Amino acid sequence: MVPLDHYLVLSAMVFTIGVIGVLIRRNLIVLLMSIELMLNAVNLTFVTFSRFLGSIEGQVVVLFVMAVAAAEAVVGLAIIIAVFRHRQSLDPRELQLLKW
Amino acid sequence: MMSLALFYILAGLLVVAALTVVLQRNVVYCAMALIAALFLIALLFLTLHAPLIGVLQVLIYAGAIMVLFLFVIMLLSPSAMEQRRGWWSLGGVAALLLGATLIALMAGREPPEGPVPAIELFGSPEMVGKSLFTDFILPFEIVSVLLLVAIIGAVVLAKRGP
After folding, report:
1. Positive or negative CA dihedral for A73, A76, A78, A80?
2. What ipTM was predicted for this assembly?
């Protein structure tokens, strides 16, 4: 059986890759995709602990995370569409209307 | 031994797919790589005795959310390539520091009293459903309200203004 820390390290690596995507990309859609990647890494941790501690609650929480991620993606993409209509661009640097 | 080899294959493919999402400059390729990563995570769920979660992962993420992403990409048809940013390495270094900290914390951890042997029904729809509708009934109802708010919000936000 695969040891616990293998899953945890894999999940940490995927989470880090998601953080890198949020920090270095300049495209709002890819930013949202990187956030999905981070949410999935956390889901993997939840399921891993659910298996290794023998309690089902971890899997139930993953269901809630999926529902919240779906809501987040829908609203985020709607905001991206609204922003694109105003600016004709997906570059987050353009969103500085409030900047002094 | 077999399961360890399977894990390493899945983990290697998952890291490659995740890196492709982050480093690929064509947005459609990013979306395809993300779909592959989500499938691989679903397979990892299956190796952890979570068949229901694995199936839902494919249905909800790969089936619904990624189709939505692809629709938006094609609707907006952004210029396919984005410019490389000049000082992007700063963000990369910060993220790598975070990753090194996380991995140092995680590596070598063992569960408190060893892995619990999986019982017959672990991860089955019956067991998840029983927990969902008894201990988690209030969050379950709140999620339904959240989804309603998300539907209304998306329609209001994406509707063409007067």
Report:
1. negative
2. 0.91
